[in-house]
Amino acid sequence: MNKMIVDDLKESTVLEGIPFNAAIVDRDFNVVAANSRFEQYFGPWEGKKCYAAYKGLQSPCKNCPTLETFKDGKKRVIDGVGKDVHGRTAHYVTHIAPIKDNDGKVLYVLEMSHDITESKNWLKEYNILFERVPCYITVIDRDFKIIRANERFREVFGENVDDHCYKVYKNRSRKCDHCPAAKTFKDGQIHSSNQVGITKTGERAHYVVTTAPLTRGEEEIAHVIEISTDVTQTKKLEEELQRIHAFQKALIKNSNDGILATDTDGNVTIFNPAARELLGFPDKGKPSMRDINRMFPGEYIEMMDDKEDKCVLDESIVLDKKGEEIPVRLSGATLKDRKKTLGYAAFLQDIRELKELEKEKLDAERLSAVGQTVSGLAHTIKNILMGLEGGMYMVHSGLNKDDKERTKEGWGILEKNFDKITSLVKDFLSFAKGRVPNVQMIDPSQLIKDIIDLYSDSANQAGIKLIARLDSNLKPASLDPDGIHTCLTNLVSNALDACVMSEKKNPQIVLSTRQENDTLIFEVSDNGMGMDYNIKQKLFTTFFTTKGGGGTGLGLLTTRKIVQEHGGSIDFESEEGKGSVFRLCFPRKRLPKPMVQEEKLRQEKK
Amino acid sequence: MAYKVLVIDDEPDVLKYLESVLSDGGYEVKTAESGKDGFEKACEWSPDLICLDIMMPKQSGISVYRQMREDKKTCNIPVIILTGIEKGDDFDFHAWVGDDELPPPEQFLEKPIKVSAFLETIGKIIGSGKVESK
User: Fold this and answer.
1) Is the pLDDT of residue A303 over 90?
2) Structural domain includes residue B132
3) Nearest residue on chain B to A406, judged by CA atoms?
4) B52 and chain A in contact, CB less than 8 A
5) Mean per-residue pLDDT for A150-169?
6) Positions in chain B short of pLDDT 50
7) How confident is the model at residue A160 (pLDDT cuts 50, 70, 90)?
8) How many CB pairs under 8 A join A and B?
9) Is B134 contained in some domain?
10) Cis peptide preceding A180, ω within 30 of 0
11) Domain total of chain B
12) What span, in angstroms and rounded, lies between the C-alpha atoms of B56 and A127?
């Protein structure tokens, strides 16, 4: 009977019709029948025990499910691992079904297996992904208990499975208020949020948490998968960036210097309170590109046209909103990220006060020079008085004695002293008065040529050679031609006197122009009598003169004043008996700006 | 023989003036335009009085004065120093020249001079120019 069933099965196409690897096993584990699929998968089976056919074993497997089915007559599904026809590890799922007789006794067991090696491999891959992915993955139940966690989580938080997620991540004793997992449990949707936790060492940690339902077809979601990415480092960087940004913002806001920055389209991106104040935009509103073109000096505009990377102007002028001139120290910079231009920034230092102080200082110097040397002035005037008195005496006594020669001589003395007092008053006024220099762009060498023309005759007569050494590459400079002319006249007439007094053989005066670095230099050197220590000490003292009544003692002082008005300086070298060199030095960047026509007219009106 | 007066001043106008005043006053006058020239003339000519200007460019009046006081030939010649700077009552000659040894000059006279006072002062020191001979 038993045999009959098997034979029937074998004969029939039932086994062949089963879309699995099907085999029939008897109580002694003998494979009594199998379909061709089975043979193709596991190889030849006839005469083999099932453990040999499936796994190449010599003895039955432990906990053999087939044996169980023989005992209890129930169906089973098991995962199995065996060897395929090629000897490779094979994963398969086997459905085990009893073949019973009419009494319900299990006679055979039908085993239907199908290969799941491929899905097993997938599972493995997914598992690795789950374990190794660089974020913390947990599966939590409705009590927010962690029931599974990936390797990465366990590495950091330990084998804390079974703890509540809020305990592990945040060291809390109850559920968080804004819990994305709770939302997912409620609506079955994916939720994300930023969470702040505390590490084992008590530091703040930032996570981006995403929760997704782990549905298995249940009506109610039993588990949620929670994926947390540690963004503490990113967060720290972000915070650091924000801090730096806030710091820079405060720095810019509180800077005493006005800061104005524009992007490459000319939109104002930074306009700090100091710049608003300076440029006359107290509350709101920003200058447009047109305003900037009008308000800022040409050097800065050129920089914005990418002709220069930066511009530094120690003394410059910007116009405020109303067009008022404001003296500033301006430094401009092209803002670059690597090679790409991001925009332009101007740093403006208001030097109105400084200018005012400078002017006050100059005035004070002038006043003190005038005030402190009243005795010097008195001395000069007394000398002239003496001359006048002498002239008068001689005219008077000459007339009395009818001495024409003496009268004439006396008259000459009177005339001479009259001239002296005239030139004293003129010099004194030009020194004491604050003159507005009339600045123009001129060729420095031309000034020297004019002086040579002026003095060539008198120098010739005195037998003194006038030599010009001019730098032909010199660029024009913004100078007050009358002022510089006065300076050079003073120096050259001093040099002529020094030559006349020295009684040397080949007296000569060399006038030269040149440029050293950014400094324009005029030089007047003579090989005259030179100066001793005492004279050098008193050189720039008011009314000091070595020319007796011939000089007013104001020439060098006036010269120095004019030079200083040009932002320059005067220095000299001299050796007694050998000669003197006087140098007027003008750093080009400190030279005054040439007046435009309009301004000139305004000045003249004043 | 008239008294001899040497005038040293760098200013030719002043020299002409003082020369006229003094010769009108009856003195015999020589002039020098510099300290160097003045000292040489003082040595050669042995004047009875020297009028010396203080403010001179090449060699100051004081240094000429010191030179004269240190030289046997000139150390006894009375000197009037002409100065443009006012000398108050508390004027201290030694402090001014910075030398305690240097004897002060016979007289300081402030420029501009008054002709009568000038002649009077000189008259007091060496006698009137009108005296023909000693």
Assistant:
1) no
2) no
3) B20
4) no
5) 83
6) 132-134
7) low
8) 71
9) no
10) no
11) 1
12) 112
